[in-house]
Structure formats: C-alpha cells, structure tokens
Design goal:
The structure holds 2 protein chains of 2 kinds.
Chain A (H helix, E strand, L loop, with lengths): L1 H4 L15 E5 L12 E6 L2 E7 L3 E9 L11 E4 L4 E2 H14 L5 E5 L8 E7 L2 E6 L13 E2 L4 E2 L8 E5 L9
Parallel strand pairs in A: 1-2
Antiparallel strand pairs in A: 2-3, 3-4, 4-5, 7-9, 7-12, 8-9, 10-11
Chain B lengths: L2 H4 L5 E6 L7 E7 L6 E4 L6 E2 L6 E2 L15 E2 L13 H32 L7
Parallel strand pairs in B: 2-5
Antiparallel strand pairs in B: 1-2, 2-3, 3-6
The chains are: A mainly beta, B alpha+beta.
Chain lengths: 175, 126
C-alpha cells in the first residue's frame, strides 16, 4: 500500500530505510509520527494525512466518515516555534497595503534572513518576515520581485514557514 | 503566483484580499506537501497570535467554524470520495442528505406505529 501512494514510476523503496508512510489509528489523539514522508491516520472523523517539517506539523483531512469509538483529531497546522506574533501580522498588512496596486509576496522564516535572496521586513521572537527576491535564471543574480496588479513572481524559500501574498480580490475556489 | 499550481510545498500559504476596502479578507491553507496531495483550510488563530480586526477569515466564521463542511480539498484521489473544497454546494448537499436521513427515520417510526395499531386489541381514539 505504501508504494501505491508514491509515484507510479517510483524506484523501489530501500528495504533498510524506514517506511515512507505510516498507517496509524488515533486511539488517544494524534499518534506519534512513524512514516518518513507522512502518516495516514484513521480518527473518529475519517482519514487524514499527518506530515511535518522542522517548523510545523500538518494534518489534512483526506476522507470523512464516522468511525465510532475513536476521538476526532483537529485538522490544521501546529507551529513548532509557537504562534506568529501580532507585530508580524501587522507588518504583513502594512507592506501589502503599501504595494497597492501591485501584489507582493512575503514569507516568514524561523531564522535570520539570508543575505541576497531575502529582504528583511520585520522580526519577532523566532520568526523573521522577509520579502523573497527573484532569481530568474538560477544563477544567483537576485533581483527584486516582479510584480503587477495581477501577479507576483519571486523565488520560493525552501524552508519558509509561511508564504503570503496579496490579491485585489479573493475567490474562494482559487484560495 | 498561480496559487493552486504553485502552492504545494509543506508550509502555510496565505492570501490577503480587498485590502483597499473596509472589509479586507484573509484566507490561509496548508497542503500536505506529498502524495496524496490535499489542501486544508486553516483558521487565522492557528497561525497568528493576533486579532483579525477588520479582516474576515474567508474559510472560517468569526467563531472559528469552517464555513464549508468540507475540511480539505484533494487532488489525485478517486472522485467518488472527494470533498468539494471551499464551495457552497457541499454544504447544501450535506444538509439535504441530513434531511433525507431524518425523513427516513420519521417514516420508519410512523410505519412502526401503524403496525402496532393494526395488531393492537385496544381501540385508540383519533
């Protein structure tokens, strides 16, 4: 079953390596992580996927059904370094409003900002709010974000805890 | 940024909207970052230690309840068990299914009463 969750053309999983996916039952709340990639967990409300990084734990519902006798595990995210301070929320809003009529992309990292690829905006506690820059050619030639009223282009930060960008409108189907 | 195509890494994604109005909006979500690919909406309070202020959490009501009964969107899984993310029809569908179940229970109880009345030696005034 584990293999079927991976790419169809995936290479065989090394026998000595931990299983890529754990298949668990939430008898007493969220079980301890087991899979190297993620865990598929049965709880009182159905089936969910649990995964994590060094900064957050993620639980996303895959299928809903009633499973009698098991507790319902709340879905969503748990930030390992704690909630993000209100000052960074206000800084995000202020920066996004300042960018109007253009969009802007901001990111929160749980470390100090990188030299060329991230422009410092604000920091609070373990988190730093930065403006990711754009390396179109992948050669380290960092440029400011390329933004317009309908789009923004920047190079993603691999270890970002959060990315947030501004829209003029939100359509629930596209986020 | 093409949100649905680009925002697939294991992190929180947020979008701010209607910033130049008196009713700005925020929507937060988190993808699994692996197969099966799925995306779940998350409430503001799971991420920020702050008040929403004038902002409206698009996916959640003011009391933290998901505005859609579906808790996640899914891609790459069979459509027979798929939820309809962020869309009103799934709420209506759940309501209709709930009503249908209630009607079925009421009908069964009425049928049971009728059978009892038919076999009862006592006359019951109507």
């Amino acid at each position: 079953m584990s293999q079927s969750l991976l790419d169809d053309e995936a290479m065989p999983w090394p026998e000595s390596a931990p299983a890529p996916y754990g298949h668990l039952i939430a008898y007493d709340g969220p079980p301890e992580p087991r899979g190297l990639v993620a865990d598929v967990v049965v709880d009182g409300a159905g089936l969910y996927l649990a995964a994590s990084t060094s900064s957050l734990d993620v639980r996303v519902r895959l299928a809903k059904t009633v499973v009698p006798g098991l507790p319902i595990v709340p879905m969503g995210v748990s930030l390992r370094h704690g909630l993000i301070d209100a000052s960074l929320w206000h800084a995000i809003v202020e920066r996004a409003r300042a960018a109007i009529p253009h969009e802007v992309l901001l990111a929160i990292v749980a470390r100090d900002p990188a030299a060329a690829s991230e422009v410092f905006v604000a920091s609070a506690g373990p988190y730093t709010l930065v403006e990711p820059q754009f390396d179109e050619t992948g050669t380290g030639d960092w440029q400011p974000q390329r933004a317009s009223a309908g789009a923004v282009r920047a190079t993603p930060i691999p270890d970002a805890v959060m990315e947030v960008h501004s829209h003029h409108t939100i359509t629930p189907t596209s986020q | 940024v093409t949100d649905d195509r680009d925002e697939t890494a294991r992190r929180v994604y947020g979008v701010l909207g209607r910033l130049d109005t008196e009713a700005p909006e925020i929507a937060l979500r988190v993808p699994t970052g692996c197969k099966p690919h799925a995306v779940g909406p998350i409430p503001f309070g799971q991420v920020f230690a702050a008040d929403l202020g004038a902002f409206r959490d698009v996916h959640f009501s003011s009391n933290g309840t998901n505005v859609d009964s579906a808790t996640s969107s899914r891609q790459g899984l069979p459509s027979t068990v798929g939820a309809r993310p962020f869309s009103r029809p799934s709420v209506l569908l759940d309501l209709l299914l709930g009503m249908a179940e209630d009607v079925a229970v009421i009908r069964d109880e009425l049928d049971g009463h009728r059978r009892l009345e038919r076999h009862s030696p006592l006359w019951t005034p109507r």
